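$ run holo --ligand "magnesium ion" --emit tokens
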Amino acid sequence: MNTTNLQDIKARYNIVGRDEKLNAALDTAIQVARTDLSVLIQGESGVGKEIIPRIIHDSSLRKTKRYIAINCGSIPEGTIDSELFGHEKGSYTGAIDEREGYFGAADGGTLFMDEVGELPMTTQARLLRVLETGEYLRVGSDEPRRTNVRIVAATNVDIPNAIREGKFREDLYYRLCTINIQVPPLRERGMDSILLFKLFAMTTAQKYHIPEPIRLSPEGERTVMGYKWPGNVRQLKNLVEQMSILEQGVQVTPEVLHRYGIIEGQGESFAISRIYNKVNKDNEEHRDWATEIKWLASAVMKLRTEVDELKKHITLEQENRQTMPLQLEDQSTIMVPMDSNPLITTATPSSVHQPSSTSIYTAPNNMNLQSYDDIEEVNEEENLNLEEMEKRNIIRALQSSHNRRKVAAQMLGISERTLYRKIKDYGIEE
Ligand SMILES: Nc1ncnc2c1ncn2[C@@H]1O[C@H](COP(=O)(O)OP(=O)(O)O)[C@@H](O)[C@H]1O
Ligand SMILES: [Mg+2]
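-- output --
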């Protein structure tokens, strides 16, 4: 693709970065858009995978048809087949109505399956069938239905490894990754972290009416570039939002960054993996010791994965308790713009019920959100951060207005009544 096209795409989707590998990923997305080939997007968590399927859909001949984004990791195993493929009335207890399912609903369009590595094996078999034949069965029906859906999938798990562990079907993997797009980790993108820092400092300042965006000192830039960013762009975005609220007007030096745990050369996500790699390189004499350590290292890694899964499971349980199941018929549940940055997609049954209107952080008017019929997946952590920031912002506004609620509400851009409710909800003492 020529540079102008790439620039257009970046401007349209608010993508910041000049890294060659990122450019190559975007380039491939554009090139394959007009085909119907399945695409698998791979990359660590937080690298920015979710915008790619949107670009593919918008640049394809399917753009006038539906784009549906689902998060396979957040749909309970018991209902995933019915959500994806639909069900007949009375097919199981509680199935009072028939349901079309995403494969039926996205006919002619694009289905983005995020966290595809989380699909249960039985669902993987159904998915393979629909990919190969274009046919699927609703739960409780033996009458095949046809659909013409383009699949774009994403994952942050190492699928070849999942195949070895018997958790992912090899045939499905090859079917899905006809086109493979790799989104590089932030630590490999050179200056991009600095550019992204500036972007987030600017958008956060706009969002929270901060007079001047925070900025990095030259030494601060070195720290940001030298840090490993295990949570990638998502982590950087959260950090900049936090610092913008707490460090207003401050030039961000390595000392400031240090207080937030950002230290040059640190941030290795798997500290243990370094030992593992080192041990791998060890020479013959240390073989026994090495084997022992390797075993320990892999046990710790496994434990870590299990803890992560458990955390995810608990979050899911909590979300499921708080939310109603996604109703496909209600289009608005899949299409709610939320963030100032359209790089946010993924409809999950849980996220669609996030009460976005209750947040006092509204998107700046100059960002064109109307064209993005997406919603943001707000994970628990981001939510907590936002709440904390919201609370601090309210306190700050109250302090600087000498507790005059009317003035504070104006500063925050919310009604006095909302401010009153928030003060109560957060238990803020004036
Ligand atoms: N190149 C980029 N420019 C601007 N924002 C980005 C970029 N890459 C990622 N982001 C932002 O970082 C966050 C995480 O991206 P996301 O696509 O959700 O990551 P994941 O790879 O985990 O799906 C989102 O808020 C997204 O808008
Ligand atoms: Mg994601």
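-- notes --
The chain has four domains: 3-184, 187-259, 271-322, 380-430.
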